[in-house]
């Protein structure tokens, strides 16, 4: 308060850089911020009376106060042991009705109610919606979309342009390639004979979902199998064996009941896609290939 008006408010553009696992603070000289010689409390009261008279929104309304409290709360939480590591998601952002931007790339949107652990890589354009949780050591590609209540990880790899609908858990041992669609409430497993009282993490079986495959709602993918490129798993099916490329699978256990094109159309006897005209043929191994 005793400083002259030209130096009452100073901005210090300090920077924090990371080297290995520790931070380095680079301090900068202060920059004076222009300030009109007025009485602050008088201006505050005047602005309040103007808002009352005109029904205008104050510069610092209740929403702004709530945002400040969120920042202070998250800053306090980040000081707790184990919470200050580089990469820990700090869920500070806009109101719950709008997504926020996470630091991986411009355009990555993570809803305020979602949580992203440390050591997660998220590609540009990916969106993660309400109440989802991305665990540590997960790699997610670009332009993906994760619906509500989705859990991914730990140690899961997901390609580009993958869509995961609501209520899906993708566990360790599952790898999903580009362009895969996971329907609502579809199920992945990673142990064949789970027991609550017996730890079997050493027995996780690898599951691979190849490029462009579609998994319908409420389908179950038993671990240890591969879903071929552009395979189509019908809703409610239980996949307990490897699935060929382009195969249309249905039933419990799932069996091939036809072929699907890359464009997502069921193929007839002529094996010509009715959507884009692509021709397919069965090879000598009973698999389908585009001709």
Structural account:
- The model is unreliable at about 85-105 (pLDDT under 50).
- The chain has helices at about 40-55, 60-80; strands at about 10, 15-20, 20-25, 30, 100, 110, 115, 120, 125-130, 135, 140, 145, 150, 155-160, 165, 170, 175, 180, 185-190, 205-210, 215, 220, 225, 230-235, 240, 245-250, 255-260, 280, 290.
- The N and C termini lie far apart (about 80 Å).
- It is about 10% helix and about 25% strand.
- The strands form seven sheets. A ten-stranded mixed sheet has the order 5-6-9-12-15-18-21-24-26-27, with no helix packed on it. A six-stranded parallel sheet has the order 8-11-14-17-20-23, with no helix packed on it.
- The longest helix has 17 residues, at about 60-80.
- The chain is of the alpha/beta class.
- It is built from two helices and 29 strands.
- β2 and β3 form a beta hairpin.
- It is elongated, with a radius of gyration of 27 Å.
Feature tags:
alpha/beta, 6-stranded parallel sheet, 2 helices
Please describe the topology of this protein:
Elements: E1 10-11, E2 15-19, E3 22-26, E4 31-32, H1 40-54, H2 62-78, E5 100-101, E6 109-110, E7 115-116, E8 120-122, E9 127-128, E10 133-134, E11 138-140, E12 145-146, E13 151-152, E14 157-158, E15 163-164, E16 169-170, E17 174-176, E18 181-182, E19 187-188, E20 207-209, E21 214-215, E22 220-221, E23 226-227, E24 232-233, E25 238-239, E26 247-250, E27 255-259, E28 280-282, E29 288-290
Parallel strand pairs: 6-9, 7-10, 8-11, 9-12, 10-13, 11-14, 12-15, 13-16, 14-17, 15-18, 17-20, 18-21, 19-22, 20-23, 21-24, 22-25, 24-26
Antiparallel strand pairs: 1-4, 2-3, 5-6, 26-27, 28-29
């Amino acid at each position: 308060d005793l400083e002259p008006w030209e130096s009452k408010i100073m901005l210090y553009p300090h920077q924090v850089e990371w080297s290995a696992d520790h931070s380095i603070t680079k301090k900068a000289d202060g920059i004076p911020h222009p300030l009109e010689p007025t009485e602050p409390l008088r201006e505050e009261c005047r602005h309040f009376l103007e808002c009352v008279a005109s029904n205008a929104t104050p510069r610092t309304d209740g929403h702004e106060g709530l945002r400040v409290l969120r920042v202070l709360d998250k800053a306090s939480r980040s000081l707790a042991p184990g919470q200050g590591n580089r990469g820990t998601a700090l869920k500070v952002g806009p109101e719950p009705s709008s997504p926020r931007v996470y630091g991986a790339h411009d355009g990555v949107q993570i809803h305020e109610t979602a949580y992203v652990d440390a050591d997660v890589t998220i590609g540009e354009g990916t969106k993660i919606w309400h109440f989802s949780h991305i665990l540590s050591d997960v790699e997610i590609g670009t332009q993906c979309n994760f619906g509500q209540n989705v859990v991914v990880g730990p140690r899961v790899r997901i390609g580009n342009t993958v869509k995961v609908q609501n209520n899906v858990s993708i566990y360790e041992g599952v790898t999903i390639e580009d362009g895969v669609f996971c329907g609502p409430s579809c199920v992945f497993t990673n142990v064949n004979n789970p027991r609550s009282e017996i730890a079997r993490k050493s027995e996780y079986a690898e599951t691979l979902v190849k490029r462009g495959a579609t998994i319908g709602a409420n389908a179950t993918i038993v671990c240890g199998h591969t879903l071929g490129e552009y395979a189509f798993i019908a809703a409610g099916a239980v996949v307990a064996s490897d699935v060929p490329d382009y195969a249309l699978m249905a039933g419990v256990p799932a069996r091939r009941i036809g072929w699907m094109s890359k464009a997502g159309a069921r193929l007839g006897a002529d094996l010509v896609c009715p959507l884009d005209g692509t021709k397919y043929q069965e090879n000598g191994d009973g698999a389908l290939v585009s001709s």
